[in-house]
């Protein structure tokens, strides 16, 4: 999975929990998935549509009622679902809300090695400076990200690197980046 698909995938809060539950064998119908994720109906429905648009889910032909369809993972959806299950299995329930935020997973995917703010922003092209700053601060506050000063240059600058649980999450994402 590339970083652009990861950004699109995490744009909806309930995408990762839906995929993880499907990976763990929860039936692809709305009621069991709603119960397993704890999502609200509107946000849940928007996430299902979003996953189908990304090509990670499809309607299961011949199953379900037209108003209550059954969904199944596509081939690329199975890979994403396995990654989602690894991520959610790594995080304690109390920190699940932070994992559902749009930029948490993409930022952690990029910060296996120390990265400057500008390098993170350029790889996550649709992110605004403010959204990146807020996300980095939240990850720092949860101790998932470490901010250090690089003094090797004439002008010192901060670098960010996944740490503690953030490093475990970086490995669980498995984009093949350092």
From TrEMBL:
InterPro entries: HTH_HxlR, WH-like_DNA-bd_sf, WH_DNA-bd_sf. The keyword RNA-binding does not apply. Keywords: DNA-binding, Transcription, Transcription regulation. Residues 101-171 form the HTH hxlR-type domain. It comes from the Bacteria. The keyword Nucleus does not apply. This is Winged helix-turn-helix transcriptional regulator. It comes from Ruegeria aquimaris.
């Amino acid at each position: 999975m590339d970083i652009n698909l990861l950004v699109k995938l995490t744009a909806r809060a309930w995408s990762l929990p839906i995929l993880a539950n499907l990976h763990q064998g929860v039936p692809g119908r709305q009621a069991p998935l709603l119960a397993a994720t704890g999502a609200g109906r509107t946000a849940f429905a928007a996430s299902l549509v979003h996953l189908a648009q990304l090509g990670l889910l499809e309607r299961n032909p011949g199953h379900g009622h037209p108003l209550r369809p059954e969904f199944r993972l596509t081939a690329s959806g199975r890979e994403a679902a396995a990654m989602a299950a690894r991520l959610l299995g790594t995080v304690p329930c109390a920190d699940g809300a932070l994992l559902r935020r749009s930029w948490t997973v993409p930022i952690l995917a990029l910060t296996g090695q120390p990265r400057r703010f500008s390098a993170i922003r350029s790889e996550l092209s649709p992110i605004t400076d403010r959204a990146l700053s807020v996300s980095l601060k939240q990850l720092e506050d949860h101790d998932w990200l470490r901010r250090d000063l690089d003094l090797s240059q004439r002008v010192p600058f901060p670098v960010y690197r996944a740490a503690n649980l953030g490093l475990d999450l970086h490995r669980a994402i498995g984009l093949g980046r350092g």
